[in-house]
Amino acid sequence: MKLFFSVLSALLIVLLLVSGMAARRSQKPIGKYVTLLNLSLLFPLIGSLLTDNTHDKFIATAGCYLYFIGLNLVLLALMQFAVEYCKNSGTGHKIPKAVYAILGIDIAQLLLNPFFKHAFRMEEAVMPDGIFYRMIPHLGQIFHRIVDYGIFGAILLVFIVMSVRMPNIYKERYSVIAYTMIFAGIWQAFCLSANSPVDHATIGFGLGGIIVFYFSLWYRPLKLLDRMLSDIISEMPGEALFLFDPNGRCIWANELGCQITEVRDENFELTENSLVKRFGEAVRNHGEWSDKTTVQTETELKYYTLESHRFTDEKDRLTGSYLRIRDITKEQMEIRKGIYEATHDSLTGLYTREYLYQNISEISQSFRERQYLIIFVDIKNFKIVNDVFGNEFGDYTLQCIAEWVRKDMSEYCRYGRLIGDTFGVCIPASEFSPEELEETLSNFIIRKENTTYQLLIHLGVYKIQPDDDDVSVMFDRAHLALSTIQDEYKTHIAYYNKEIREKLLWNQKISSQLGEAIRTREVRPYLQPIADRQGNIVGAEALARWIHPEHGFMSPALFIPVFEKNGMIAEVDKHIWRCACEILSRWHKGNRNLFISVNISPKDFYFIDVITEIKNLVNEFQIPPALLRIEITETVMMSEAEDRMQILEDFRKSGFIVEMDDFGSGYSSLNMLKDMPVDVLKIDMKFLGKTGDADKAKTIVKNIIHLSEELGISALTEGVETKEQYQILSQMGCSLFQGYYFAKPLPLEDFEKLL
Ligand code: C2E
Ligand code: MG
Ligand code: MG
Question: At what angle do helices 30-53 and 201-213 cross, to 10 degrees?
Fold first, then answer.
């Protein structure tokens, strides 16, 4: 028995020494304190081993001192260990100074024992194998025990309190130390009370030291780790997780995994089949892969990502695998919503222009197999709809048109809203029935509550050519076709054709040549004489002509409308005005006081300061303003009427004579005459026409002439072609005449010869 304990003690001494050294090498801060504790434990263990195994009284006594003083060192080390061990729990323990003092006093009184014999004495014990010595305690020893038990108890209390206070998963850390101390304490008490000649109490301390070493340095709280990890993955939002063993059997699934597979009560053997049923055979593969998939449930289509990974050990042997399934339905819906909003018009739900173009491009390979048409749908005067009936009705109108566009479209058609009040369609030619469409468009009525409005819709059609590839160009062409519609209420569909293309090319050509043509005077005025009642030429109208090096003589009909559209008309007009002034200045100097009328396009007012321009010219050429007559048409008054009126007044105040051109040919109303500050009314004979009741026409002209007379405006008739017309008009009171009857517009030299 004694031998057994001695061997055990020796073994513990070696173990403590080894663990003490190992703890020293540990990186953890606690290592130092474990080393101190385990090395201090060597003193009582060696002391007790000596006392128990010697026949020599001195050695036995020395062993006792080693034991008692060593125990105080052990308590000192244990206290410091406890402080460090509990440090991270948030409770800041500190060792009271009094404790050091008491331990110091105890060591001192023990060391004084040889002199006063107050602590203990050694007594002979006769055993079967010889004489041994055992310690007989005195008062000092009792003091020593009170001190040691007191401190030991206090440290134990700290560990008990910690293990009670800490959350469950951390309890273990503290309770293990507390149990170890309780065991060592009880064992000590038991050994003392047994009053055996040999003291085995130190065995408990030694074991305690080893346990402390293990728990503070080596032990990894796997249960804690387990709990933490499973908590993390159980609560991973939107993520179902399945763990499989190396044979592919499911061994665990988190909450969401169980919900998806509807596997309850950890019946994980059912998991795989349920997964296969939902996500297909692929989930049987437990290798490395990922995939996206959709699942149609009773109520909705769900989107998932699947991801499988393998676990291997350090030798790369398969230890298991896991499958992550993420429900991405919400994100997918968001993405789809975003795509929808970006590609569809919010008001009508039709494709946006960009998306329509993209869609048409995508079917472009079928342009070779099938004839397709591009249709540009244009609502005329849509602004009026908004303006008169309000935006709500306007929106409703657009929705009705979208509905009409959408109706009867086959899978081969593509259609969308281009912008504002225009829509675009790409349709196989075989599905296009113009007669039916004309019929619909001739009576396209929008009704909402008490409001009805007949819409005017025009369709521009372009036939796609096999090698066409730019969708926007195709729509531009379909759009251009619209410009050919003459009678906009009768015809609703116009086709892009070669002429339109040629006209476009023509426009481009002459526009690019205009600057040079003005500089070289290829563009120049022809003069058409204006005669008085006696037949004398009193003036002329300057009419632009272009003597083109390639196309020869060009009448203004070939270029004026083009430049009126693109704004270059102002360049032409400024040039003609300048030429007219040059001629006038020459005539004026030669005492030939004829006037020249120049045309002013309504568009000029948008591009130049007309009045300043003209005033500068008469100043530059030093001619009386009355010689340069200003011809305007009533369309000038169509916009900004007040401003324009002001300009005309200004002209008149400055001495110019203002003529109202083409009276009767347009929309001129007699009413306008009273407000228009003009001096001459140019009545266009064309207005009377070749057909109809000639007598009635005469009556009208006669009365217009009378009316103008009464308003103080003199009358000039243009387009006078016959002597008869000239005579009748003279009788009616007309004072000036212009027309082929006198002469056609002539080059300057011819005109001057005529004079
Ligand atoms: P407009 O100012 O009314 O000019 C009169 C037009 O009637 C001229 O046509 C003239 O040749 C034509 N004409 C004159 N007498 C007769 C006749 O007895 N019978 C017929 N059937 N026609 C006659 P033109 O020169 O072809 O000019 C057409 C229009 O082009 C002009 O009409 C004018 O609006 C515009 N235009 C001509 N030159 C210029 C210009 O330099 N600047 C601007 N802005 N417009 C111009
Ligand atoms: Mg004119
Ligand atoms: Mg005219």
Answer: 160
Numbered ranges of CATH 3.30.450.20 in the chain: 232-333
Cβ-in-10-Å burial (0-12, 13-18, 19+) of 733 comes to middle
Whats the size of the chain, residue-wise? 755
* Active-site option among 718, 721, 749, 752: 718
What is the edge-to-edge ordering of all strands in the sheet holding 372-379?
414-419, 422-428, 372-379, 457-463, 493-495
Q: Where in the chain is the domain with CATH 3.20.20.450?
A: 517-754
pLDDT at 580: 98
Pairing, β 372-379 against β 239-244? unpaired
Q: Which amino acid is at 600?
A: I
State the pLDDT at residue 267.
83
Q: Which of 418, 432, 439 is nearest to 376 (CA)?
A: 418
Start-end of CATH 3.30.70.270 domains in the chain: 368-496
pLDDT in tens, 573-595: 999 999 999 999 999 999 999 99
- Between the CA of 230 and the centroid of ligand 3 the distance, in Å, is 95
Task: Read off the amino acid at residue 291.
Answer: D
Say if domain 232-333 classifies as CATH 3.40.630.30: no
Nearest-CA residue for atom 20 of ligand 1: 719
For residue 529, the ligand closest to its alpha carbon is 1
Strand order in the sheet with 318-327: 250-253, 239-244, 318-327, 301-312, 289-296
Residues of the chain with CATH 1.20.1070: 2-219
Q: Which residues pair with 333 in a beta bridge?
A: none
The protein residue whose alpha carbon is closest to atom 12 in ligand 1 is 719
Is the pLDDT assigned to residue 197 strictly greater than 60?
no
Q: Could you tell me the end-to-end alpha-carbon distance of the chain, in angstroms, rounded to an integer?
A: 159
Hey, CA dihedral for 625, 626, 627, 631, is it positive or negative?
positive
Q: Read off the tokens for 733.
A: 């009171």
Instruction: Please state, in angstroms and rounded to a whole number, the distance separating the CA atoms of residues 22 and 33.
Output: 12
Q: State the Cα torsion 7-13-16-21 to the nearest 10°.
A: -130
Say how far apart CA 7 and CA 3 lie, in whole Å. Answer: 6
Question: Residue type for 617, please?
Answer: L
Answer yes or no: 341 catalytic. no
* CATH number attached to the domain at 368-496: 3.30.70.270
Centre of ligand 3 to C-alpha 582, Å, is 23
Cα-to-centroid distance, 386 and ligand 2 (Å):
37
Contact 102, 117 (CB under 8 A): no
Give the CB-side neighbour count of residue 586, counting CA atoms within 13 A. 8
Written out in words, the top-level CATH class of the domain with range 2-219 is: mainly alpha
79 or 686: whose pLDDT is higher? 79
Q: What is the token pair recorded at 693?
A: 């009741």
Lining residues, ligand 1, CB within 6 Å: 528, 543-544, 555-557, 560, 569, 572-573, 576, 599, 601, 631, 661-662, 718-721, 738-740, 745
Superfamily (CATH H level) for 517-754 = EAL domain (3.20.20.450)
Q: What's the CA gap between 712 and 709, in Å, rounded? A: 5
- CB-count burial class (<10 Å; 0-12, 13-18, 19+) for 93: middle
User: What's this model's pTM, rounded to 2 decimal places?
Assistant: 0.55
Contact 438, 492 (CB under 8 A): yes
Residue 656 has pLDDT above 90, yes or no: yes
Handedness of CA 559, 562, 564, 569 (dihedral sign): negative
